[in-house]
Amino acid sequence: MIQKNDRYSAPYQGGRQGGTRGGSYQGGQRGNGPQNGPRGGRDYAPPEPIKPLPMPADYLEKAEELMREYYQLITTSKLRRLFSLVMEVYNEETLRKEETLSADSIAALGLMRIRFAYECGRDEKVKRFVETAGLLSYLKGLGSSRTGFIDFARYMEALVAYHRFFGGREN
Length: 171
Known about the structure:
Layout: H1 59-70, H2 76-93, H3 103-122, H4 124-133, H5 135-141, H6 146-165
Helix pairs in contact: 1-6, 2-3, 2-6, 3-4, 3-5
């Protein structure tokens, strides 16, 4: 008989097999240890690092070609959400005349990269779109260039416009 003071000292005798508190799991490999990779696959290779790329001079043509083929990969709301992150920094930088981005804008670009990467991790279609469009590579390649960032913002604006033009989905 269990006394009131011995309430937690008695072993669990509940309905699970194994008879110990917490169930019968004894440890061991559960399928996603370091030797099995993050998704349980045996032949896991780490992803390639994101390489910084400069903004191409023909970014408007690139946006049109990209959206003609891939407009169905991303919803209007998701694309506009990413675009709004860019526009916050763009609105600050268009008021300035210096050739380099402000410290606040550089910090915001870092947070923007994190947000883009997070959205890619949440949705495989968004990841395919961001990789195909080169968004993370272009963001990483901006450095502190104000004119490069303004070109990137215009590229994003062109993506939104051509997405709408080619009939991108709403939800």
